[in-house]
Amino acid sequence: MSAIPQQVFARQKASVNTLIATQSALFSGFEKLVDLNLKVIKATIDEVALRSQQAADVKDPQEALAFSTGLVQPSAEKALAYGKHVYDIVAGVQGELVKLGEEHIADNQAQLSEAIDQLAKNAPTGTEGAVALIKSSLATATSAYDSMTKAAKQAAEVAESNLNAAANATFKAASDAADVANKVATPRSRRAAA
Predict the structure, then answer these.
(1) What would the pLDDT profile of 142-153 be if each residue is shown by its tens digit?
(2) What is the pTM of this model?
């Protein structure tokens, strides 16, 4: 068997393996999202049952106000935690896909470099300049790809940092709003008791 059919077969096998790995990463992420959503639904049903029982025990308007105010902060915290979990799952899948893509590109670059080396060995005399130009172009393209990849990773890190800062600010705002609502409800219940 000649080297070219073996190379074609090896490339096809590598492509199939990459496809299978990609599908596995995507399915794993989907599975994690489904699991997270099932846990959230179960916890929500349990909490609704508990809150319903607590609401039935409310006897006066001040208790009702305090009860409704107490619902705000935990809901905001849970929404932020859910968003963080979803983000972590998606980021994990994205990381796996990026890793697979980088491995695939590195493999293709190695194969291309090998092909250029074979071309250089079999090239007729006087084509050394053309082969050197091709090698130089490959090196430049590889360098540009590496620079682009580093810039994309830095942009992703900045975006993640900004997302975390926004989530923390939102959580703080929700906590502050719940604290203000509790402070407003407390003087009313004291006035009603007096």
Answers:
(1) 888 888 888 888
(2) 0.66
